[in-house]
Amino acid sequence: MNWKKLAAAAAIIVVVAAAVWTYLITTYVSELGTSNVILVDTENSVSDNRQDNSLIELSFDDEAEHLAWSSLEINLVIEETTYGCSFGAQSNSISLEGKVAPKLGADGYTFTTEIDATDSESYTHFDLPSQLESNNTDYWMRFSSTDIYLSEGVSWTFIEGAELSDVIEVADDLNNDTSERLDWYTYDISVHRVNPNDGVYVFAKDELSFKVNFLTYYNNQDESRYPTMQIAAIGESDFPALDDPDLVVPSPCKIVSDDIDKGHWNSNETIQLFENQINLCDGTCSIEILVYYETIEVEINEREVLIG
Fold it and tell me: Distance between the two ends of the chain, CA-based, in angstroms?
């Protein structure tokens, strides 16, 4: 037996396998986002000194899918100022310091919240009702790398395969065991990625209840240890964060649609963006349109338009 040939063959196999694995990792494409293309129409745009003008109409190109409003973020950039568009409220533009970054979706009641869990030696404590960073005595969840633990007193369950909009009430069989870390992800060794479980978690404590969908473990720079969740209250439960003016303010840009389904921007639906009691454009204005779905930027056929 020629050991040199065997060794050379084994070395080649190792190199090829490593090259294939590296290729899979470097060419990985996230399943988040959408392939929809947004079409922009300014034919009915008005720009004068009123505060309720129709600015832009948006629709989808052919072969689009329905998009959940809870996962959408729509912004207009006018004279270097960014204005959020929603059905009522938007995140406060003043950035909060700390390791918790909540952002309100276009529906006006669902947060997409990113947690900085980069410190493997200590935990980032998170108060879910307030959507703020907390401390080790007053929290609902604590994060470090991939580890997530629930505070004592939090009851929970996981509804496999569910979408956030599917969950409208709290189940009767909540689990009270918080001694083990939350089993919220699987690891795909082929692409070296942490993938959140497909489904919705329900967390309840002190007569407050929330539904949580883990979107990703990565930030918009594709850096790991940034678990990101969609969070909304269930049913009649209060959501204190929605009443916090440091987090939420009235949206200066209002989304208007004739469709009665306010859960999704349907594939054949045209929406209008109106000024909401603030004069965003008086005269000729250049407007840049930015749309994100599940934190991923959506393609737009004409991202900058001139009205007036």
Answer: 82
